[in-house]
Amino acid sequence: MKTIGIISDTHGMLRTTVHKALQGMDLIIHAGDVGSPEVLKVLRKIAPVYAVRGNMDGGELGVILSPTEVVDIKGTLFYVLHDLGRLDLDPVAAGFSGVIYGHTHKPAHEQKNGVIYLNPGSAGPKRFQLPVTLAIMTIDGSDQEPEIKTDFIDLEE
Questions:
Q1: Maximum CA pair distance of the chain?
Q2: Pairing status of strand 76-81 against strand 68-73
Q3: Which of 7, 48, 67, 74 is buried most, with the most CB atoms less than 10 Å from its CB?
Q4: 7-39 pLDDT tens trace
């Protein structure tokens, strides 16, 4: 069994409570708009990190991050990109179990044709009336159980 922390849209802000919520993860996936190389540096101290470039990731991040990643977790394949509107493949035909994305800051989880589509929401600065969220996914063989988490946040940070 593997436990994956999934975040997006940190925009250079890594809250202490997000850092704590990700402790003990086997892997972290960041679905773009990282905002600062420092965020990745801190996350890599917790677990291995896969991250993609978001529309706000310029400068150094624009160079080092790819717009997409394929994450293979013991044969379970996930396609990671920032903006779901830029999905340029058929996940079912390509053999993906899930598509992980960000961009909207709105957490979402649905299943279509056997593929999980997961947006962890935004773990960065609070925006509009949207909650600050992340996702935790447990993978046990071919079973994936994603959960969007809001109960870890202290907005006084």
A1: 45
A2: antiparallel
A3: 7
A4: 999 999 999 999 899 999 999 999 999 999 999
pLDDT score at 153 = 64
Parallel/antiparallel/unpaired status of strands 49-51 and 27-30: parallel
* Cα first-last separation, the chain: 32
Residue 65 and residue 15: Cα distance in Å, rounded?
22
Query: Which of 74, 67, 70 is CA-nearest to residue 96?
Result: 70
Q: Find the mean pLDDT for residues 76-83.
A: 97
Query: What is 2-149's CATH topology?
Result: Purple Acid Phosphatase; chain A, domain 2 (3.60.21)
Per-domain residue ranges of the chain: 2-149
Token pair 């992980």 in the structure block, residue: 100
- The answer to whether 106 and 123 are in contact (CB under 8 A) is no
Spatial distance between the Cα atoms of 46 and 3, rounded to a whole number of angstroms: 13
